[in-house]
Sequence to fold (183 residues):
Amino acid sequence: MATHEVLVLNSNYEPLNVCNMRRAVSLMLLGKAEVLQHRDAPLPTVTGSMHAPSVLKMRYQVRRPMPQLRLSRHSVLARDNYTCQYCGVRGKDLTIDHVVPKWAGGPHTWDNLVACCRRCNLKKGDKTPQQAHMRLYRKPKRPHFVPYLSLPLYLKAQGKHEWQMYLPFFEEFATDAYIEQSA
Fold:
């Protein structure tokens, strides 16, 4: 039961969080949230079964400061779609590379960090891409993302069809499947 995820929206339909089924059911039973969309599979209970929630909306406005987009390893990997920016290999076993090395004055910023496979990271070493005769697939930049959810969580949530209509659309993170469904 706790492995199923539920999108939680604020009372103004702004994405708040993704929680597990146990938390979602408790929000419903306490009267703090209402179900906007049900999951296809029913949720077994002691007395039978009930419709399992997929999207909840809080009944009151949850006040919180506007979160900032954090520069982290997970955010850089998510921005680059878990793809090496030098050779294009996809996977979870990636490192973060400074395009302009630190010794050459390269800052630790969105514009200088990329996802990189271990092979390319060893090949590039402590050189610039030009010195190592390597080319970037895409120039790194800070995402134009308003982070209601963290970037990795937003990208994971975007992959769930029933949640897409509740998430803000950012073209730079649009997946091929999302674009085909919208067309």
